[in-house]
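Title: Prediction job returns without error message
Component: structure pipeline
Severity: low
Priority: P3
Assignee: unassigned

Description:
Job completed but the reporter wants confirmation the result is attached to the right record. Sequence as submitted:
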Amino acid sequence: MSCDRFQKSFSADSTLSSKLFDLVEDTFPGLTSLAERARELGASWEDASTPFILFDDDVAITHIGVLEIPMYIMGEKVIVGGVHGVCTREGFRRKGYYRQVMNEVMEYCDQRYETLVLTTLEPEYYLPFGFRAVPEHSFKLKCHSTGSINGLRTLDFADVKDIALLHRLLETRVPVSNIVGVVNEKAVFCVDEGSRPLHYFPDLDAIACMEIEDTTLHLYDLVTTQMYPLPKILDRIPQLIEEVVIYFSPDLLNVEDVQAFIYEIEETKLMVRGKFAAEKEKFTLPRSARC
């Protein structure tokens, strides 16, 4: 077993990416294709992430990645460290390798970030390293909107103009919420959302991460240079909407009679280490920013 330190460089080792994704796919089946989709959209995992990898001979057995997420938290812009892709190959677990790599990652992050975030199905693995679970909320409201304008289309990523549009809005977006919102971040967004339909409102110059189930609109994120009142968005959806579920704090949507509910996106818990000014607020880290 190599005793070298674990921080690696994709640019210095052209074989590192394939070795990493051999490990990642073993632990998170399907993640490789999501990362490939993001790469096709011009937002590669390798450009955004600093990898910490433990090898057994030439085989990657443990990985923890760190990337930067520019956020607004309680109205203040901060660069948050995102811990992601945490995995150990089956057959090498419960031998202390994860702890070895995580200790180095924490040392690296402590020199750079006041705040770390991650999302996980297994929060107990991160408690010994100073992470704590922070509750999240979804927000529901009743409405009756039939839409007066057919004002949206699905982005076509076979069209280079739509890819350029996505990049422009991701680079210039305002935070979806002043409580917790993300700005000028591409890699996590494109991994999380690049394989899902993205809906564009041309006259608002806004992209919505959303799904419609019967008469319920599920709104996960808005990528736009200015936030709009929710009725403006609903007016451009040409079908009956009777309920809206919002998966971020709706403080910039100008809505009333909203109910907040404890919620876990895909059953994952948000874990935070260090300073987090929004901890006592009702919010959700948007699906498009979860690593």
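Comment from assignee: result matches the submitted record. The chain has a mean pLDDT of 95.
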